[in-house]
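To: structure desk
From: M.T.
Subject: fold request, one chain
Message: Could you run this one when you get a chance? Sequence is below, nothing fancy, just the single chain.
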Amino acid sequence: MIRRISILLIISSFFNCSDSKRSVEEEAIEQMENNLIDEIETGGGMPDDKNDTIKYLALGDSYTIGESVAQEMRWPVQLVNRLESDSLTFFEGSPKIIARTGWTTDELQEAINDQQLSNDFDLVSLLIGVNNQYRGYDISIYRKEFEALLKQSINFARGDASKVFVVSIPDWGATPFAEGRDREKIAKEIDEYNAINLSLSNKYKVVYFNITPISRGAIDSEDLVASDGLHPSGEMYRLWVEDILPRAREALSK
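Reply: Done. Structure tokens follow.
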């Protein structure tokens, strides 16, 4: 760009010194200069790194932070790595993860309130609720607080619901940790919680991924469980990402 400006200035100076009358060449040079100025002012031909990169926000609990697995095996990180293999470029620090083991919906909300988050994310995911179920909270609380979190997630994505997706709650009752507990009761309650987050996802036209059947495969496959006997392994998270990947690509292509 600087080289083009220098050449134009040299040529322009030559014509200005050689003849007081405007020639066809001088008019052409002037037009080229004007076009170049317009290009600079509008940013034409100059890629904006910030606009060309993707910002991804992942909200959740132990499943989003990837308890008991290596950082690169967390499902949001696996998702970013797969998308980057498609030649997509993510903003430095993506995915931005706001999640912690043990969080309920109200604790996630408090953590979000403590952050100064922008509303310019290109992708936002929400997975929360297992600890509401585990602690035996009134399920009506979940409905209210999950809806508030979902609406906030849409706001973080510039108000575009197509850039937001919800992941269902895994069934921890299928893990070795649940040995000796009432697995059927756990499964029933997880299904009730997921019925709520699915209903609200439909209400706000947000993409929903039902990974709960995958999580229930842990009862027959130790490879799907992390070393703590409770949380998903990197392999299970990989299976989640396989489900999520096509729709994530579609959302980012819009």
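Reply (cont.): The CA atoms of residues 162 and 206 lie 6 Å apart. Let me know if you need anything else for the meeting.
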